[in-house]
Amino acid sequence: SKFVARDARDCDISCLVDLGSGKAYLSQVLATLHSIPVLAIDSQEGNTRGAEIREKNLKTKWEGLKVRAVDRMEGKSPSNRKKRVKKTKSDEVLAGEKQKSEDVEISDKKLIALTQFVEEGSDLGDLVEKHFPGKGDNFGLIGLHTCGNLASTSLRSFLSSPGCKFICNVGCCYNHLTEDNKGFPLSKHLQSQHFTLVRLARMLAVQPLDRLATSNTLPNKSLLWRAVLEMILARVAPTLPKDQRVVGRIAAKSKSFVDYVRKAFVKLKVETDITDNELSEIFNKYEKEFGAKLQCFYQYRALFSPLVEAVILTDRLLFMQEQGITNSCIVRLFDRNISPRSYAIVATK
């Protein structure tokens, strides 16, 4: 938030659009602590409602903290919330005065949460002007952990919105990227070379290498369980297509490997007469032969995660520069142990 607030001031930005805001955690910090008007846009109605509820609760607590701070500055004993509420009610004598205060509050509102699906190539300035009149020709665009193609959409929205002067976008969920001109690659340079990243490579890009290196723990049991399950499926359901062998996160709900396999069979609608003893024997065999090797392979494979992520980020930066946005760069914003997706595409125009 400090980085965005500083750059917003440097660019003389009048407000910000948080695209893919979720429950508007970043938006609320920028609006409350930095007094920057923010239009928080998310396509999910549930996220918007959550943002509004959280904003209301935060505002109540924030106002109370400000009052207590003033009391301390004046040498008074900080008042409690019940006394402040009672005093507020006694002061609201006329309904007209109450309505007037509400009108002022609405006009001064710093955060507006909006449920909206943003079409690629649309001018965000129209939405800004609608909700923050007079600010549609001078705003910034932010996105924290924008999932999959939303990062690409954000970059294109920055380019297609004349009033958007600044962007700071931190992407994530590379495994959800589509391999076309809407997701990856974006740059003409990589497109001309027909460059692609297969799904396994994109999934590899989201591995938290720094966190793995400092956690001093080995991969959990689900990794080996899923690998052995694949061997069992090849035996009992050889005609089941690989793209349909999706079992989800059932390992955490399973008491043992046998229980895990039985749950997987139910989910995949696999009927077989294999016994529990046979399943245990198969697992013990593969665990002894491949358990340690699989853990080594997993850790070795994770070493390539930053390389794949670098390809995706460099493609986005190159795309911006191909569009004439020369004042663009990649900035590391976070500790990778806390947030594995720590790099932002930052640009001004």
Q: Can you walk me through this structure?
A:
The chain is an alpha/beta fold. Helix content is about 50%, strand content about 15%. The chain is built from 14 helices and 7 strands. The protein has helices at about 1-10, 25-35, 45-75, 80-90, 95-105, 125-130, 150-160, 190, 200-205, 210-215, 220-235, 255-270, 275-300, 305-320; strands at about 15-20, 40, 110-115, 140-145, 165-170, 330, 345-349. A 7-stranded mixed sheet has the order 3-2-1-4-5-7-6, sandwiched between helices. β4 (about 140-145), α7 (about 150-160) and β5 form a beta-alpha-beta unit. The longest helix is centred in the N-terminal third of the chain and has 29 residues, at about 45-75. The protein is globular. Residues about 85-105 have low confidence and may be disordered.
